[in-house]
Amino acid sequence: MRKRLIAMLSIYLAVVLCLVLGYYFWLKAREPNTQVVGFFDDIPETRLVIGSQVIREKAPPLVREGRVLLPFDTVKKHIDPYIWWDEEQQKVIITTKDRVIRMETGKLEALVNEEPMDLQFPPVEENGVLYIPIDFLKDFYRINLRYMPEQDVVIVDHRNSIYRIGEPLSAEAVIRTGMSIKHPIVRTFSEAELGTQAAELVIFEEYESWYRVRTYDGIFGYIPKADVVVRDIVMTEEDPDRRSATAPVLPSGKIGLVWDMTYSKKYMEFSREKSPGIDIMSPTWFEIIDREGTIKNRANLEYIEWAHSNGWQVWALFANSFNDIEGTSMILNSTELRHKVIKQILAYASLYELDGINLDFENIYLRDKDAYTQFVREITPLLREQGLVVSVAVGVPGGSETWSLSHDRKALGETVDYVCLMTYDQNWPKPGSSAELQWVEDRLMATLEEVPANKLLLGVPLYTRLWQEEEVDGKIKTSYVAALTIDGAWKRVEENDATVVWNPHTGQYHATYEKDGKTIRMWIEDADAVNAKTSLVHKYNLAGACVWAANFANESVWPVFERNLKQIKHYEEWKALVIE
To answer: Residue 60 sits in a domain of what CATH number?
Structure first.
């Protein structure tokens, strides 16, 4: 009996002990962690915070007399991917939507859109690292910047962001390293801080019962939702287009830009009455002709007066030397030569009172892709400052030509007002169509992944290439003969009684005939081909079309542009007209 009582008592004591221990551990589990740790302890030098992230790079920020300088590589990676460093000339170039800033290491003066501005600190090199005076650039980059000496942290926020702002409900609220009360504390708040800027919290992420926040002094962590009051939403507008002069207003409807090879006065045959559907003439006026950046000028005031009298704008074409790829490379990679070229174009644009500039740089090394983008980014704000519209001609995605691969269509589309897609010369230099309809649509759809539709002009060719085939030593040899106008192509058809077949897939007439033992082939670009191609402008809601070139046109083609670009409002309307 005694043994039984002892056993029962032992069991009872064991149960009680288990309950006591369970209660103890239950209480311990509910007890919050009170350990306070330093958030930046693993970063011994000046820290950098950009938005919702702590930035950890090899080189830290510099703070000189309260002014902040950031490493060039950090700025390029986290703030401005297009910032440019010319090591040979020791110059930094920053381009924004409406400004070009040029700074030279060691010099307390910068050029902003060609106007001098004083710097408190120039770009400097320390321990092999190039540092940029970010204080001077904060308004150009539209960023907010502050330095918190207590934490030795630089905090950068983009102004075109949306933030929720909150504050702790009481001094008992704490910021922790994770979403649990068992995580260590990284920030506490005193009664004196409550209701002041020091207690401000920027809320980045929201979870079921926690917020991820950043304190005013740059510390990141987590706080229970129940401990926070959300009092405001900070939202800033997109950077406005601050043109110094008013850009010309385009007519209603889709845009019709026509390139004009201005080597004679043939243009005088065009008029608003005879050639409807035109909004913009782009004469081939300016071309780089040597490796010093000298520009050949074919412009004349008579042309300007003629175009404006017809209600057309003039966006003069500016090209590189297509036959000197090495010379183009030298110019694009030299800060001074780019600057020289830009100043000449600005002067000509002012002299002739142009409405816009169309950039057409082809035959560029693939390695110069970024250099060309930089050139466009440098010239665009300065042209806009003079009130000009800026457009750029680009090759198609998937093109095998070096110059096509060397066009960063996405970056260029982000920079300029309009992108002219050169959807032609599909098979060149091999025989075949200049631009089959399906090929054009395929290339267009690929481009729309890079360039927004409201900036894109679809290239429409008016020339027909004539090809001939002949048997030489038992083999068929194909050669190119000539580029024909619309009238010239149909004249060949009539004179040679050619076989002509309309191909709905290519959107063209295919013509063949025999002459002098040779087979002649043409894929004809005419009013019917234009009708098919310009339907894509509505199908994909593009800004309009760009036409190469006025010199190949005849009077039958212009009413098609007028109808499809100006009168028809949508793709379904065009399809209904075709069925009729």
So the answer is: 3.30.457.10
Instruction: Note whether 225 and 285 are same-domain residues.
Output: no
Which residues have CB under 8 Å from 430's CB, separation 6+? 478
Dihedral sign from CA coordinates of 493, 497, 503, 504: positive
Q: Are residues 261 and 211 in the same domain?
A: no
Angle at 414 between CA 408 and CA 416, to 5 degrees: 95
Domain that holds residue 176: 162-235
> Which tokens hold the place of 461?
């060719």
Query: 143, 158, 173: which is the final residue of a domain?
Result: 158
How many angstroms separate the Cα of 89 from the Cα of each of 83, 108, 132? 15, 16, 16
Residues 152, 216, single domain; the answer is: no
For residues 457 and 540, state if they share a domain.
Answer: yes
Q: Which residues lie closer than 8 Å to 208 by C-beta, 6 or more apart? A: none
In Å, what is the CA distance from 539 to each residue of 77, 182, 565, 571, 578?
38, 59, 12, 5, 14
Q: Would you give per-residue pLDDT tens digits along the chain (580 residues)?
A: 666 767 677 777 777 677 766 655 665 566 899 999 999 999 999 999 999 999 999 999 999 988 999 999 999 999 999 999 999 999 999 999 899 999 999 999 999 999 999 999 999 999 999 999 999 999 999 999 999 999 999 999 998 778 889 999 999 999 999 999 999 999 999 999 999 999 999 999 999 999 999 999 999 999 999 999 998 776 555 556 667 788 788 878 899 999 999 866 566 678 999 999 999 999 999 999 999 999 999 999 999 999 999 999 999 999 999 999 999 999 999 999 999 999 999 999 999 999 999 999 999 999 999 999 999 999 999 999 999 999 999 999 976 555 578 999 999 999 999 999 999 999 988 999 999 999 999 999 999 999 999 999 999 999 999 999 998 888 889 999 999 999 999 999 999 999 999 999 999 999 999 999 999 999 999 999 999 999 999 999 999 999 999 999 999 999 999 999 999 999 999 999 876 5
Single-letter code of the amino acid located at 438: Q
pTM > 0.70: yes
Task: Classify residue 272: in a domain, yes or no.
Answer: yes
Task: Tell whether 195 and 332 lie within a shared domain.
Answer: no
Same domain membership, residue 262 and residue 188 = no
Q: Are residues 112 and 202 in the same domain?
A: no
Q: In whole angstroms, what is the distance from residue 330 CA to residue 338 CA?
A: 9
101 and 129 fall within a common domain: yes
Confirm if 396 and 447 have CB atoms less than 8 A apart: yes
Inside any domain, residue 20: no
How far is it, in rounded angstroms, from Cα 494 to Cα 211? 78
Q: Which two tokens stand for residue 161?
A: 């962001």
Pairing between β-strand 129-133 and β-strand 124-126 as defined by DSSP bridges: antiparallel
**Residue 487 domain flag:** no
